[in-house]
Structure formats: structure tokens, C-alpha cells
Amino acid sequence: MSAVDPATVVLAAAAALAAAVYLYYYSPRANQPDVHPLQLAQQASVSRVRESPRESPVYRSKSAPEGARLLATPPDEPRDLRCAFRAGRRTQRPDALRMVAGDKLCCLSSEELAGRVRSFAAGLLRLLGESAARPRSAVLALPGSAEAVVAFQACIEAGVVAIPVAASEPAAALARVIAHSGSAVLVTTAALATTLAPLLDAPALAHIVVAGVPGSSGAATLIPFGDLEQGAVLDADPEISPADIAYVLYAADAPGGPRGVAVTHANALAALAGLESGLPPTQAVSSSDVFMSVAPMAEAANLALINLALMRGCSLGLAETPDAEEFAAQACLVRPTLTYVNSLVTRDLVQLFRTHTQQYPWLERRLFESGYRCAVDSLMRGVAPKVNLWDLLYARHFRSALGGRLRLLYVDGRRTPSKDIEWLRAVHGAKVIPVFGPPETSGVATAGQFFDYATAIETHNVGPPLACNEIKLVDAEHAGLLAEDQPNPRGAVAVRGPNVAGLWWNDPSTATPDDGWVVLPCYGEILPNGTIDIIGSRETVLASALSPTGRLLVERLEHALASSPAVIDVCVAAQSASSGLGILVYPQPMELAAAARRMKKEYRLQSISSYPWCAEYIRQRLVEAGQQAGFQWLAQLPAASMRVKLVAGPFSPANALAFSDGAFNRAAVQAALDAS
């Protein structure tokens, strides 16, 4: 056998090296932006005339500019949600529902799902009876399950108002919502029914339908879920009008007690039209998609996307969980193409994968970090990371951890930290779309543009208005926010459009104003490109001597502090006119471990509050992050005026520091700070 020519070996090695360098460095930079930059320079249409100097101009989606009608229904114009869901169920597929049981995937076909929905709808009407108060309603306190999807669709099928609530919320809070709803029927699990029984004070509640083996519930009648699916047939379709209430959304953190927003069929359809309008035709949601529902159905944005999936005949995967490892394990089986994750799951998911990369050997970790910076550079230039060496080595692994098919990832644009959105875009390869919309807007009012990869990274904006509504800012003088502020208008966010619900459930005194504008309980700033940054709420914009402006925008400060790589969760507690800040932090464990090695300090996460050096180290990192974001005054604060307390676990419903939708429980945070 002849020896290999040394020149050939050298040439082959040089070619391999050149290919590696090209794939790693030049290939990402050779790509042109995925859309012309001018299309992203102005993402909203702005009215020429301001109605009042106390208001900003009116902003609209560029696909529904001034003078055009706002979208009110999807292109196929279903009359109500029932029509939309029936069209989706006509898609014949064996996996209309995908459920994970242990390490196996169980499926329910379109035909089986349609049969269960109609049977449960008939049973529900039989249970409620003709004498029940109108509109008839049912509270759905179910975790992600086949029963939750069947019960929700059955309510829509029967013309019964569905009131989904998060089963993970504290039982006392659930009991208050059930009592306020005035519903005669509660659909829940057997375990939760037992927990709720001693707390319920709801005279109108007559029946509890339970999934699982019934126990004892006190005064109300217990009915197995399966019993409502037996022996009942819908003889005729109950009459439904687009103006009828389809479902009610309760805000988990509503101040002053439970308040539910009544969403009509027309409101819900307009929200679906707005969501669809934000996607390019080639990315439209279709029956070939799999939507994975991770957040509770009670979360407004998640329910809007569930409605979209049901309308388009998608396969619906159910994996409601706040735990990222469980989400990833189930995603490997469900293999979703689109999903929505709230800030609670997003923070845990990013932390899970960051921890994985931090355990790489030194050289490999440096290679990954270099590739990550390369991917972020591509994103900021408007180029989605495509084939390169880093993608081949690492990104494919992260994508496969979530099923390998994810193409659309919707996140809570208001509460998800910018660094987490950056990570998801750079590493997972999906188009990450931040959305914003409280219950008053049927869950959606804005969404990031499909090709704007910098959305929510540099400015934490939540995108421009959807084509189903228009937005303006109204002076909020008590908060020091004015439409004539420079360089950008600021104020209370006002929304108008067919997706805007104007009624509070069981509160007939509320109604949409004659001009249709509903002022939301949050404040915003409109950026030069027409996107919106949500900068706070009525409870988190305070008069403060700490800030040079005399006003402390607590949520904006939290976003700035959360950009520090040394922290995961940050909640600022401050009182009006206070001369100090209290900050509760869940630190980045690997960052503190590395600092402990450098400083030769003792450190254990589970007893972190007993190590004063940890709190001081994190305080310094927070000051640095705040200064980089423009909060220069933090450096002048004495340590006593910026008190930092560390906790050993992420903020979650389990430790009462967050609600199920990811919003911080600020009362619990204040209590934790006061206890230190």
C-alpha cells in the first residue's frame, strides 16, 4: 500500500481549517438581513392629529393604518368561537390532543375529542337546568389535561360562560374567585375539591364536577367528570350571539380582590385575527402545527393562543408546569412547533440550559461563549442564526431538548427579562415573539414583529399594536408621566378595538366608554419606531427622593437590575416618599460559587442568608447593572439605603413569591424583606 502524500494531508487539513473558519466566522456575517431594515424602522402607523395635548397620537399596526378598519374576525370569518372550534375539530387527525403519561405519549383523535365535547356540553346543560341564572357559567379549576380542554370547549359549545382559574393558585385565593363568580358549577380535580371544601363560602355553588375519585366536599354535590359525558345528547345547538360572553378572565394579582373581565365571542375572535395578522403568510398557524400549552389556561395570552390552535385544527399538547425540566422532558415527546411560556417558565428554562453550559470544560465553555456572541451579533443585524460551526456543535442540541421542531415561541413581553429573550433567540433557533395584553384586551394587544430580532433585547419593548386594536397614551400626572415628555411620550396605556372587553363580570356598573377607549392599569412609553415599552403600573410608579426625576419606575428598575448575569429573579420593594430600597433577589448559583472560589469564601445556596458577603457581592453587581442601564444614582446610595436580601430558590407559587403567570407577589416580597 502506497504512503499518503504529505502534501495531500496538509492541503486537506488546510481545507478543513478554512471551512471551519468560514462556517464559524464569515458565514453568519455574509447573510443579508431577513427583512429590509427600513421595514422595522417604523413598526406602527401614527395618526396625524392628536385629539388632545394631554394625549399622544394614536398608534396602529402598519397592516391596519389610519383610515382602515381594524380586524374583527379571522379571514374565514367564523361567527363565534363555537363555529371556530367546530371548524378546527373537523380536521381529521389521530392526535388532536397529545398528553404525556409517565414516559409515554397518549393521544386523543379529533373524532374522540368532538364526541367528548358534545357529550359533556349536553351533561353540563342538564346539570345547570333551565332555571339557572343567565348567563349560565362554570368555573374550571383544572390543571393542563384532557378534561380541561374538553370542559372549556364544552362550555363554548353549550353557550355556558367558561371561567378558567389556575389550579396552582393558593386555595384561599381560588375560593374567593369561586365565590365572586356566582357560578353554580365548579369543575376541578378530586384532590383540589377536598382542599377547597372547608374554604368555600359560595351560596350559588350547587355542583362540583371532579376528575378523579370523588371524596367529600361538604354541602355541594360531587359528580364524577365521566358521569356528565354519559347518557346526554345535545338535541339542538343553544343560541349564541357574537356579543354573548364566551369566558371570563380573572387577574391573579388584581388589587382589591377578585375582578373578572368578561370576554365576548366577538372580542376573542378579534384577538385571534390580530395574532394571525402578525405572522407572514409562510408562517401561518395551520393544522400541521402542534401547540404546547405550558402555562395555565387562565392566563390571558395563553388562552388566546389555545383558541388559535383549536380554531386552526392544530394538535394540542398539554404540559402545564412551572418546572423547566418537566417541560423539556414532555416537549421531547410532544414535539411542539409553537408554544407560549410565561416569565416563570422562561426564567427556569434559561437557567436550566445556562447551568448546563457553565459545566462545560474551560476551553469548551469559551468556545460556546464566543459562538453565542456571534449569534447575538447576527440577531442584532437582523439575521437569524443559520448554518455555522456553533450551530452544528451546540444549538442543535438545545433545539432537540425541546423536541427539535419549535418555530414560534411566544413569551410574556412585559415580565420576561431581556437577557432571557436574547438567550432563547440565540440558542433555540425559534422566532421568539414577545406579546403583551391584559385580560381587558382578551390577552393580546401588541406583539413583536416576526423579523425584529432585537425586540425586547435593547429596549424591552413589547412590539407595536396588533391589527385588531389601536393604542395611545394618556397623561398620568399623578405618576409624573405626560404625553409631551421628551424624548418619548409616556402615560397611561389606552386601548380601543374589537378585542377590547368593556365589562367586569358580576359588576354591571362598569361599561366601555362611549368613545371605546379603555385605560389599562399600566403605564407605557412609545419608542421612535412605534413599539411600546411597558414601564410600570399604578402600584409600581412611586414618588421618590431617590430618583433625580422625583419618580421611581420600579418595574423599569427591575428590568435593568435583572440584566446582571449574577441574578435570576429581582423584585424591588419601595414605598412612596421612601429614602431606601428593599431588593429581594434569587442569585445565579454558579456566579456565586465562582465568586466564592475567587474570594476564598464559604458559600452554600440553601443557607445563603447567613453569608453577609453574598448580599454585598450581589448589591455591587446590581449597582453595576443599574448604572449601565442609566440608573447612575444607585452608585451614590449608601449600603443602608439599598438593602439586598437573598433567597435560596426562584420566585414561584410554591414559595408565594410569584403568581402562576409569573407576576411577582409584591405583598409577599415586602413581607419577606420585613422579616429579615
Automatic annotation (TrEMBL):
Pfam families assigned: AMP-binding
Top enzyme class: ligase
Chain spans, region Disordered: 44-75
Protein name: Medium-chain fatty acid-CoA ligase faa2
Keyword set, alphabetical order: ATP-binding, Ligase, Nucleotide-binding
EC number: 6.2.1.3
Every AMP-dependent synthetase/ligase domain range: 92-502
GO cellular-component term (any): membrane
PANTHER family (UniProt xref): AMP-BINDING DOMAIN-CONTAINING PROTEIN-RELATED, LONG-CHAIN-FATTY-ACID--COA LIGASE
GO molecular function: ATP binding; long-chain fatty acid-CoA ligase activity
InterPro entries (UniProt xref): AMP-dep_synth/lig_dom, ANL_N_sf
